[in-house]
């Protein structure tokens, strides 16, 4: 895999968990402009003292004037679009806002960059574009959603719309575009509603861990550093232009109940597990097929689940303010 150097990189959502991890990886050898409304702030845990080559604009991607002005002044080589409404509670409480930010917000970003001579536009999509059951799904196959009347699918629908917009602009305006579909990313610095983060913060405080349904739902968890390596491979591969990549770790496959039990064991916790009804519609199976990323990008996840959980537990123990 190549290394990104001497680039001007504009990151929407750069203060979020994934955006902050990307910034940490890339800022030493590049210039970064983060555009974020700071609804959540993981950046504080990744970058302690903001260096001169990181600029920050606190703004909303729906503020088209501010967004376009920032991009025109910065003149980026790369634009990484991560800004989104992504929390599960958002789907249920603010479905219209979720659609607005994820779909119309993406349109705003694309309008702002369509005349810029970019080297790469990267859209961060989601594994939810594959619908309720995901096993072995390939990027060039069909996408799916659940019952359209269920607001649970608002996120997947809106992100799929953003992905469609991205490739429509790529075709019409000749923007070199790639898309990432991340699968269940976790690790140090995550704030908000990540399942691993919630279980860990409960476990290290010996609090009851709530598992929805019977706990047999299956997920494959990918450590944050592996996702960032996948992104860097996309940015440095000419073959990645015009392509979509599943980025995840099939080896991190585990049931939700077993995940909770493993976190309790690794953290030495006294937490009990309590089963509760799911508040809406759940996904029973989600495991990525990373064959395409492996072939084109030479992407291989390097952190196994137990090691990633150990690193995460240690980090959350040292950073109690976010619990």
Automatic annotation (TrEMBL):
This is NAD-dependent epimerase/dehydratase. Residues 9-248 form the NAD-dependent epimerase/dehydratase domain. PANTHER family: DTDP-D-GLUCOSE 4,6-DEHYDRATASE-RELATED. It comes from Candidatus Daviesbacteria bacterium GW2011_GWB1_36_5. InterPro entries: Epimerase_deHydtase, NAD(P)-bd_dom_sf. Pfam families: Epimerase. Belongs to the NAD(P)-dependent epimerase/dehydratase family. It comes from the Bacteria.
């Amino acid at each position: 895999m190549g290394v990104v150097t001497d680039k001007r990189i504009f990151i929407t959502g750069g203060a979020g968990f994934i955006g902050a991890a990307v910034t940490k990886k890339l800022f030493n050898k590049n210039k970064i402009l983060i555009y974020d409304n700071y609804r959540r702030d993981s950046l504080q845990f990744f970058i302690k003292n903001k260096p001169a080559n990181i600029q920050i604009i606190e703004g909303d991607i729906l503020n088209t004037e501010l967004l376009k002005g920032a991009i025109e002044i910065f003149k980026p080589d790369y634009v990484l679009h991560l800004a989104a409404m992504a929390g599960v509670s958002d789907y249920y409480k603010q479905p219209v806002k979720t659609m607005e930010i994820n779909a119309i917000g993406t349109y705003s970003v694309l309008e702002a960059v369509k005349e810029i001579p970019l080297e790469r536009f990267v859209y961060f999509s989601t594994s939810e574009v594959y619908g309720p059951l995901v096993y072995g799904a390939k990027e060039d196959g069909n996408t799916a959603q659940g019952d359209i009347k269920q607001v649970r699918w608002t996120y997947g629908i809106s992100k799929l719309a953003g992905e469609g917009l991205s490739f429509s602009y790529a075709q019409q305006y000749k923007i070199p575009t790639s898309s990432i579909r991340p699968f269940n990313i976790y690790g140090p610095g995550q704030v908000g509603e990540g399942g691993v983060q919630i279980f860990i913060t409960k476990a290290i405080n010996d609090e009851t861990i709530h598992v929805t349904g019977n706990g047999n739902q299956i997920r494959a968890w990918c450590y944050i550093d592996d996702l960032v390596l996948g992104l860097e491979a996309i940015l440095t591969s000419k073959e990645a232009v015009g392509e979509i990549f599943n980025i995840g770790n099939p080896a991190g496959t585990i049931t939700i109940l077993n995940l909770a039990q493993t976190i309790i064991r690794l953290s030495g916790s006294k937490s009990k597990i309590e089963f509760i009804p799911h508040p809406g519609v759940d996904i029973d199976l989600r495991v990525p097929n990373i064959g395409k990323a492996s072939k084109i990008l030479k992407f291989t996840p390097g952190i196994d689940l137990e090691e990633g959980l150990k690193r995460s537990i240690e980090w959350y123990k040292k950073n109690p303010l976010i619990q």
